[in-house]
Amino acid sequence: MLSLQADKLRTLSIPVSTSWLLSECMEAKGKQELWTRQRPEVLTGRVGEIAVSATFAQRA
Fold first, then answer.
1. Separation of alpha carbons 11 and 20, rounded Å
2. Cα–Cα distance, 60 to 56 (Å, whole number)
């Protein structure tokens, strides 16, 4: 498995736009993890609603 190595990261030069996008992705992942830890019952309910609506949409 590949991993990030701090020495190699220090020598990389990435564009500002790329680093901005990476930080946005990490922020979104953090928010997702917060939801899965604090409110799993809400997510479980939404998954059920989506499955039911998808079933009805296929029948139409």
1. 18
2. 6
Which amino acid is present at 32? Q
What is the value of pTM for the model shown?
0.40
Residue 35 · residue 45 · CB < 8 Å = no
**How far, in Å, CA of 19 to CA of 9, rounded?**
12
Residue-wise pLDDT for 5-36, tens only, equals 778 777 888 888 888 888 888 888 888 787 77
**Could you give the 3-state DSSP secondary structure of residue 14?**
coil
Sign of CA dihedral 37, 40, 46, 52: positive
Q: Are 36 and 43 in contact (CB under 8 A)?
A: yes
- Residue 13 to residue 26: CA distance in whole angstroms: 19
